[in-house]
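Appendix B. Raw example, untouched.
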Amino acid sequence: MAAAAVPGYSPGFKKPPAMLRLKRKRRREPVAAAADAAAAAAAAAPSPCGAAPRPPPARRNPFSCLDNAPRERDRRGRRAAGGGPPAAPFWQLLDAATEEEPARRAEGAGALPARQDFHLPVLIPDVPSSPRNELPADWSIKTRLLFMSSQPFTWAEHLKAQEEAQGFAQHCRATETNLPQCVQEPKMSTELRCAFQQSLIYWLHPSLPWLQLFPRIGADRKIAGKASPWSQDEALQQVLMSEWSVSFTSLYNLLKAKLCPYFYVCTYQFTVLFRAAGLAGSDVITAVISPTTRGLREAMRNEGIEFSLPLVEESRIRKRKNSEINLETEVVHSPEVGKSPEDGEEPTPSDDDEESFSWLEEMGVQDKVKKPDAISIKLRKEKNEVQMDHKPESVALIKGTNTFTLLNFLINCKSLVAAAGPQAGLPPTLLSPIAFRGATMQTLKARSINAKARAHLSYEDIFSLEIIGPVMPHSLHSLTMLLKPAQRGAFSAILYTHEPTAVFNMGLDDASTALNKEAVCKDLSKCGLQPKTLDQLSQFPTLGKSSICFLEMKDYAYTWKS
């Protein structure tokens, strides 16, 4: 009675959230009742053949790890109506897991932290079906390697101070490591652990610990905001460039004396690979630049640097052969149509323009149509040349003594260093497998990761080893040579390539295919590489414009995918 006397009081009043829940409940009750009735009727109805009634469908086990795959959620956290997407590949999920410690990557050394456990599915891409005993030479620079195996990588963890020091000494003295085909206890093998430390070492100039100096192409976001006292100080920029020129000249002299096998010059626009005579099937020093621009190519021509564009010439030869085949076909079917070009005439854009108007002659109206003049043809040629800028097809090849002219050109080239932006005034990065004047010893970052891979009705352990940094060709080969006995001839790897360097695997034109490998190994025996690595890098490149992105070893034989 007291409640009724209160003005404005309603005994049936409910708050809005309670009313919404009540409406949803009333809306679901008829649907659920109809579904239960239909299921009961279907279970009680006899089958057409007079058999016993069918039992109701079995309820799915909510605790099953295979049948209860998680579904995608939208932005509001609700589950999608359809089933979840297929399981992500192992290395993609590891990418997300390893991004939790960016600070440790930037500040950590070669030592490995404690292993981490993940529950991840594994998908292995298709690989060629023809196993081989040796990998082809891959001249691209890798930014990250992810090795996977059913055997643990405990031998690569927590190197002792003596093992680390021994690895440094073996690298500086170019000590050859000979391991048995199978290491019984890899964790207890001091020789294996020292060789692992030896394979992680590379040399860098300039060395600025607070800046990531590789890769340089597209690195403005990573360098932006970092301290760069030289950007507004011209005197400091001159000092940096002077020291860089000394280091660059030192590297080239080592290369010429066959005491350095190869090195990279990484600028903010392009990358240059210098290789000693005897490597990549060439008997002279070679330099490959990628990507290039029309301005850079014109500047090199003005300096008297002779170079070739192998991929452009290859495309021209292919087009010429196709046009000759088509012309022969036309002559067979219609002898009066078409005339062959003069012998020995080099194909140029003007020749292509003349051939493009051959259909006017067939119609007999060639005199009524105005053909483009020399200026239009020149403009079209320049347009075609500009269109390949910053693309793999723009790669330039320099040989022999022209590489020394290229050295002087790069030292004196003002556009080699950015004039504005985060990389303003910062000299290019020099990467080398051996020591040189002004270089700093660096080590690749490495750590091991444990994962759980789904297999049938359970999970199995997958052990992983991650390598981060500028992985050059010699380091990739050395690491695979160590993993072969340590993992008992069974492992796989995902390789992340710095894309502008993938074109370095193209074949060299008129390279010496009959190059004596014994003579090469003898001449380059003091270049700081292992004999097996030197033998691999002396082979003729076979990967073309691509690079190895996945490799797998089974029963001590390689298969790979590029």
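End of appendix B.
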